[in-house]
Amino acid sequence: MIQNIDTFLVDVPTIRPHRLSVATMNTQTLVLVRVTCDDGIVGWGEATTIGGLNYGEESPESIKTNIDTYIAPLITGMDASAVAKAMARIRKTIQGNRFAKCAIETALLDAQARRLKVPLSELLGGRVRDALPVAWTLASGDTAKDIAEAEHMLEIRRHRIFKLKIGLRSVQDDVAHVLAIKRALGDKASVRVDVNQAWTETDAVRGIAALEAGGIDLIEQPVKAHNVGALARLKQRFDVAIMADEALHGPDDAMALARADAADVYAVKITQSGGLLPALEVATVARLAGIELYGGTMLEGGIGTAATAHLCSTFPTLAWDTELFGPLLLTQEVLSEPLVYKDFMLQVPTGPGLGVEIDTDKLRAMQRQ
Ligand SMILES: O=C(O)C[C@H]1C=CC(=O)O1
Ligand SMILES: [Mn+2]
Q: What residues make up the catalytic site (predicted)?
């Protein structure tokens, strides 16, 4: 039986300002969910967003409040081992709130996988890979600093895929910044950009033409999320891969974007999809439509990152790798043992459930009062 559902807000400073077109982050707020079951099993889930309400329509505070007030009472007392029944009740009754649903579903699946003594990946179809290549986002806002950061990551063998956040400056200045970084790194690295919806279609035509000519491998969400027509025209116009991120809010969007031939690649995010199982459906739509996959992040800490890693480990192909670096951007950790990053890869945890343990003393010290 599901006995208790507790939620915690944890504010963690980032290692440096993280500059996106929609916000500059100096801290990340983790919403952690703990599901306690009457058989003594405890499951954890997490949701994060970026810059309060700057990125999405849920804030950390709304996620916590909506879980505490509306979602937890709906499923408390239900059979904890019937995860699908609990989630069906939530999905039938609660509109939207994909991030909150993701955190709850993750916690229920973590508990159930622990109960069955299997890694969470095995409840999602089973893992076909044990380690995932991880991109790093260069977002200091300064070209020389970004190059130095990338060189350091290559040297310590942590990342050789770099995503640059652009869209805040003029197209011309952004292109100059990106191509300077690409020239400095050469063939040692894959360089990609994330415009976070900042360009108009005409900006995008100019910007993408220059980036493609300069050897950039991937263009993420160049135009507004709702402008599927423009995304489709860009996808069809250019050879460089176009990735949908903010346009993709779960399986229905995955289907609509596929029908519109609007993207070469999907950034699969468990929060944006509304949970691990809807995210798996996004990946299945992509596979059936010939769209390639990328494991995306909302800059989660260790719990949400581990959850996404379990999901991505089940994908038969993962052509564009992942960006599961969230914990590395944060100065503090709620896990007793951090996730393992080595040789450019994140190791998918092997223990039962998420395969990570929460240090409750650390959490008590870090949680918002
Ligand atoms: O992809 C996004 O839009 C959000 C996020 C992921 C990595 C990063 O630096 O920001
Ligand atoms: Mn993005």
A: 165 (proton acceptor), 323 (proton donor)
